[in-house]
Fold these 3 entries.
Entry 1:
Amino acid sequence: MHITYKLTPEEYLQAVNFHHQQKSRKVKLAIYIALAAGIVLIGTDFTNNRAIITNVLAAFFSISFYMLFVSMLSAYQARSIYRKSATLPYETTLRISGKGIRLDGKGNEKTIPWSAFSKWKKNENFYLLYTSPRQFNIIPIRVMNDIQIKELEAYLQKYLPRS
């Protein structure tokens, strides 16, 4: 099976955001909120209404800033990686077989055997094939027809666990 595509910066950012949709991020946010609430409860004089309002607003804005900062940092890093990449901004051809996935892009050819992949996941736009917990290959669904999708899923289910 052959698939040829070129990822746009927006698609790469969407794939990175899909990658970051993990339970651990929600757990970290819950811990951060619990710590902020604990600091408010411990450090507030509940007889003083002004102190209550000030501490609650400080906790709210610190949590909001944290969420915004993480989101902006992730987007900045994704755009920077896309611009600096030797392969992402160019057309790529994948040749998928029982041996693995052969990447042909911008004069570079390399075959990644199925054993190099650790897991995969899918949403409505992408397949992410992981070679490590933070490194993944992106296959956009928009470039495949139904037969290619079924063939890819058959290979994935045969050779890789789904996350």
Note: The helical segments are 9-20, 23-43, 49-84, 146-159.
Entry 2:
Amino acid sequence: MSFAERYTAGLHEKQLRFRKTHLGAEQRFGDAAGQGAYGYTVYHECSAAMLLECLSLVGTVVLIGAAFVWLSKAGSIVKVLIALAAVLLFRHLTKYLVRLLNNFLVKRKISADAEYAAYFAMQYPEHAKLCAELNEIYAVNPDAIPAKEIRTQIQDGRSRDMKILRAVGYAGLGLLILAAIAFAVFIAWVIRETT
């Protein structure tokens, strides 16, 4: 087995482990303007977890920026490294708490609704056994919900995800515009004060 095949197999195993611990979620990687990839989680089945994940990412970026601003004022690299370690701890803690919230809410939806249990088992086949354990109605007759109806639910879920992602994108664009305006006001203030 070549290195590329082992690497691909390792990535596949890692993704399977991730899907087992994160119900209805997917791990993705973004690129920060060519500066390197960062990982984030997309929660397809829980809007609250998706919103908290976005807020956690934004909070992490803001805290990293604050740590570097503190570097210019504190002058001590050790203090800034401690601040960056605290930011990483914050990110890992929020990722863990968001995963717990997502798993709790998804399990509660599965146990409360047999149609949702059938949808979830079809969308995520590795969790079909979990759906049968949590929902007795689904466990008794897993084929009671027509596949066509489940596919319609899946399509509706995807369109809802696209709306949420679009709203998050617009909110991010709005934040960038506000940051640009604030930067322009700051530059104007600096020019006025220094001349």
Note: The first strand starts at residue 25 and ends at 31.
Entry 3:
Amino acid sequence: MARFIKKFNSFKEQEEYHLDIMRESSVRERFRRLYAMQQMTALLHPPKDLTRKIIIRKWTY
């Protein structure tokens, strides 16, 4: 996919441009983009370790 800068006159024009690109893309390309978004989200928000850790300390006097 070639990268370039495109200027739009309105948000509506920008939205229609991106919708046309999505309509013309194949299913494989859409899934590739979805996978790339999931990978970026995983980098920005790493999964939390949801296991509980119980620490028992023995206090001696």
Note: The two ends are 69 Å apart (CA to CA).
